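Hi support team,

I submitted a single chain yesterday and got back a structure, but I'm not sure I'm reading the token output correctly. Could someone confirm the output below corresponds to the sequence I sent? I've pasted both exactly as they appear in my results page.

Thanks,
R.
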Amino acid sequence: MSIDLESRLARFSELIPSNIPFVEGKLKGHQDRKNFSVIGPGVSEDAKQNVKIAEEHGFNIGAVSAASMNGSGLHSHTTAEVFIIHSGAWRFYWGVEGNEGEIILNQGDVASFPTNMFRGFQNVSNEEALMFVVLGENDPGVITWTPKLLKDAKESGMVLMDDNSLIDTEKQKITDESKVIQPLKDNELESFDHYSSEDIEKFVIRFNDKDKYFVDDDHYQSNKIINYIDQFNIHDKSFTPNIPHVTGFSLSLLNGKSAHIHEYKFEKSEVYHCLTGEWEINCDGNKTVIKEKDTFSVPKNALRSIRQISDNDGNLFIIRQTN
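Hi R., thanks for writing in. Yes, this is the structure output for that exact sequence:
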């Protein structure tokens, strides 16, 4: 069967970003960033956000690039949010005031943040930095912002409405003030969870520590696999997760210069996302190659195989629907 692989391929160089994806878009420290929707719409508040692959997968994948000292303000999610760092150094901080803890993540690091907590992130490197984000469920819900951020955003001219739409008051008049999202009250903030830096470290796997997490795939001898989230099964071998979060998707990393997985089928959504190297994908006899920052969505039940074809070690994330 002939498959249109191009329609399932998201090359990063072809993605169309939103420059003001959220209500904070005019605030200092949040102005110089871009938001990309790779699979699914994600949680963007920009009604014109371009979505590369709209088909429902049971999860969403997006990307964020930001200039130095830019990023996202404090917000909370109702579904899983897992970060994959591609470049730069990113500071993550959390709590209603952003002072409960912080960690710094670098290339190849993975962090799964709990739901129902306020978190923000900032590029603390000297150059533009990039990371990808996997969000749980087909509908990952909407963002809840801290009261201070919503107040500051309104002063900048950006207002969030109850249908999750944005209004720039310099360009558009608010016709019904009752539909403006109001900042949470103190008693409402009490329902959010709190974490120390030590707590969050349990949900982080750093790429520099990869040798502690790699499991050799005896079946192929050339593969090493890190399984981050949920059970990963391939050719009768099972890999246990290292991060104890239930997200609705599994996340694993395939590593090696000659890494490969020979033909198999999977009945749910499965996505390959390239961190490094070049990966040849064979899908029902059709072939394509993905490189760094590219993403490929495999058709359900298609017979697929993958192999690393560059001269260096390659690293490929495999994301699977489990809900």
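A quick pointer for reading it: The chain has a mean pLDDT of 95. Let us know if anything else looks off.

Best,
Support desk
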